[in-house]
Write a structure and sequence with these properties.
Layout lengths: L5 H5 L11 H4 L2 E3 L5 E3 L2 H23 L5 E3 L4 H6 L13 E3 L3 E6 L9 E7 L15 E5 L4 E9 L3 E10 L22 H7 L3 H10 L13 H4 L14 H8 L12 H7 L3 H4 L6 H5 L18 H8 L7 H7 L23 H9 L17 H4 L33 H4 L8 H4 L14 H6 L23 H5 L19 E3 L5 E3 L5 H4 L23 H14 L3 E2 L4 E2 L6 H4 L3 H16 L7 H16 L2 E2 L9 E2 L11 E7 L3 E8 L5 E10 L2 E7 L12 E11 L2 E12 L2
Parallel strand pairs: 4-9
Antiparallel strand pairs: 1-2, 3-5, 5-7, 6-8, 8-9, 10-11, 12-13, 14-19, 15-16, 16-19, 17-18, 17-20, 20-21
Helix pairs in contact: 21-24, 23-24
Length: 722
Amino acid sequence: MVANTWHEICIFNSCFVPAFSKSWKDRIIPTENGGIIMVKRFATLCLIVILATFLAAPYTEVAAQTAKIKIEAMSPYRLSKMGLSTRASTSGLHVVGKGTYVYLSADTTGQAITSFAWSFVQKPTGSNAAIDNPSAQFVQFLADSAGQYIVQLTINGSSTAYDTMYASRYVGVGGFQGVAAQFPQCGLCHSGKVTKWVQTGHSRIFEEGIDGKLEGGFYLPSCMKCHTTGYDASPAANNGGFDDVAAQVGWKFPTIVPNSNKFHDSLVVPYPQLAQLATIGCESCHGPGADHAGNIAKIGVSYDVGVCAQCHDAPTHHMVVRQWELAIPHATMPSGSHATSTSCFPCHSGKAFTKWLDNKSNPGYTTSDAGYPLTCTVCHDPHDATNPHQLRTVQADSLMNGYVIGDVGGNGRLCMNCHRSRYKANVKVTQWGNYFGPHENPQADMFLGQNAYEYGLPIAGLTTHTQLEDGCVTCHMSAATGKATNMLGGHTWKMAGPDSTGTEVDNVTVCQQCHGPITSFDDVKAAADYDGNGKIEGVQTEVQGLLNRLKAVLPIDPATGEPVNMAKDSNLVKGKPELMRAIYDYYFVKNDKSMGVHNAKYTFAILRAALGSLTGVQPNDQMIPKDFALSQNYPNPFNPTTEIKFSIPRAAHVQLSVYNILGELVATLADGELVPGNYRVSWNGTTQNGTPASSGIYFYRLVASVNGSNEFAITKKMMLLK
């Protein structure tokens, strides 16, 4: 609320006086109404508040529209879509090669912008650079001279933004192929990075191509655009790139001979400085470095996918970025108050994740790390080939219940660092609060058969697919075929979705190796009729049926149509631990999102146990019996509690009742639909009315019926002895 008068701003209730230090008390004067007025410094503060009050409204209105400039990365794919396929791709960095194009756009996210005005504030002496369409949202200019370019954008005639770009020349790696680094080459200062980088595929790809060592021995001059540094055949781009130096020294693309040494003999030996550009070197990803010399403003460092898209977004052969564009966004930040919360790190920020991998005990997060999605360089280290595919790690820490992941999952352990529950289930089920459950995406826990609430059953470690060499990667990155090619699998990581015709399909290519010629995940049949609808269906259908049954006995939030999981609903679960446990397991399965595919055994086990916990009938194990059976209670005689076990080979309505020697009903232990399985139920020696039963002989009777017809009935005797 904004104060309306000087008096309202400066008068405070006298109850605040004790909170001030003595020095503040010395500066206050009591008022007639018991309030206080602070003099001198406080009066000045009041004046500032008043001025801010009057100025806030118009300032806020202007600031609502904010000019933002984005340097656009232009991949071969994007250039071809714009009819510019003859141009060289660009990285989106603020450092570019002299004579190359710079592409800019006005970021209009969340804004209603009606006009754009682009102009140069500064450009190098002698430059004739011109912005092609200064009133458009997307513009371009040719950085025709080396030096600094400062561009201005004004939107709606009011808000203005500036951005600075540098055009420079390429100098090569330095220290590559045994050639000593020279100033200002990268290897002179960054020899440690270069030493690691030379082991990567990026450093060797051009050499292997020239030597005829790539698969099939097939290699063309067109490959040089991506496999060398600074290649741009445009006459304007005379900037020391590979094509420029090759022309100067007279090197020609050779005839490819399988398993030769032409790279060394025809390039490295006669042209050692050309060799420093004959690779995907530092400047391919960081921009030309002739003017860097330690000045970080004149070199580029970016996690943006555009850096890799220069080469990996070139259909039809290089489709990684096309696939990534179709992927479900990873590492996106939550909205609202969590938008810049470091508590959501490392998994909701690609940049924070790399910091965490570098130093897990003290990653040094900042709020500016927010907003970095999962891009190529988050999972892959451009400088280090220690791990397969240059992955940053192939290890994962223990799950929250203490389970050590170990060697299971191969390369998929990278994914497990984030795709796991944030909580220990046995503790979390006692702590109700907002978004109650295992947090989103507990796939690692599900895959490994760990960390759901297990009701004391011996089900931890039940698994279905841990034999897969690379776990998550084996399936989620398996290449789809037919009309789903590049639409599923690969770097989309998607196992289901639309193919090129828009038809929803499952990527079952890798599944067929074990499950035969299936066409969908649900073609894999469950072992039994787990959901009790009288039919043995596909695993996913059976899991959905169990979820529906569990949901039907849980309190529902009318706003979502799902079981309650917010703090506002605490009264619905207060004093009912069985509800909290069942809700937790419901969301454990729901948030896994595979509907049993990741681990059918564990999924069925926890859902059946959760259902049983709400009916008093618990699964005894995970076996499906062949026959109906009722076991002798144990202990017998008993006081005060005994356990009764029984078996149901197919879905049935089950009644388990206790009678006295007069045939009178004493207690009903079970009365409802049960899916096939072995069960156990306890009787604590109390009657239907909750009063203690007297000592004596009792009979317990099991009746199982299907479609109203009795299938099985048996009675046994037990003794309560007090």
